[in-house]
């Protein structure tokens, strides 16, 4: 695939970095992401007084200033090196540098894709339960990933139909997605989200291998 074929919005950054250096960089940033995520949760649940809130805000502004002395613009995009590694650490579902992303952890399985996560206070919708929008994101991402692995290229959600079966309580949850059928560039993917209460939501989605990523004979 050449740069000319990629749409203008597809930000791609090529970096001269080895796999070892990338692992070191990941080890540097992931703890920061986890701490920012924890900060969000603590801010929701904190009951400290106004002086403590003012002091915390000072520290947060100081941290922002330090991090802001050197920043990229726009979005993180897709970074690649010449060994074929690709990393999209800004991704809203799994990005290593994205504290907004739920802490989804991909677990290798033979049949499709499995993600595990422990959802805390920052993901609440109905009191004590996971917000339906986050449920949609998890089902979407896990399904997209399953299609991506099978299609060996970027697959986009065309249609996603979700059935919310019962409230998804905050706490540990597991998503399992698998490709049910594939026809040319189109994948029908099913996904379930489960907690200790059983399956709480399920989806069926049509995912399409992007036109600009298809080999000529696949179009
Ligand atoms: C390290 C990295 C890891 C990365 C791992 C990342 C996983 C991330 C997963 C997240 C997924 C997202 O959120 S993606 C973001 C949300 N989605 C989007 O923004 C998509 C916006 N829509 C589009 O870009 C487009 O409409 C597409 C790509 C969906 C389809 O356009 P197209 O490529 O021109 O499709 P086309 O050739 O005409 O059709 C191919 C086949 O798909 C069918 N089809 C076309 N559109 C749809 C549709 N909306 N719903 C159902 N089916 C459709 C057609 O009928 C046809 O079926 P037939 O005739 O062959 O039977």
TrEMBL record:
Q: What is its EC number?
A: 3.1.2.2
| Keywords attached to this entry | Apoptosis, Cell membrane, Cell projection, Cytoplasm, Fatty acid metabolism, Hydrolase, Lipid metabolism, Membrane, Transit peptide
In this record, what's one Pfam family?
Answer: 4HBT
**Where is this gene product found?**
Cell projection, Ruffle membrane; Cytoplasm; Membrane
Task: Indicate the family of this protein.
Answer: Belongs to the THEM4/THEM5 thioesterase family.
Protein name (record): Acyl-coenzyme A thioesterase THEM4
Q: Which reaction does it catalyse?
A: dodecanoyl-CoA + H2O = dodecanoate + CoA + H(+); octanoyl-CoA + H2O = octanoate + CoA + H(+); tetradecanoyl-CoA + H2O = tetradecanoate + CoA + H(+); (9Z)-octadecenoyl-CoA + H2O = (9Z)-octadecenoate + CoA + H(+)
Tell me what organism the protein belongs to.
Nocardioides dubius
Indicate the segments forming the Thioesterase domain, all copies: 128-200
Main location class? membrane
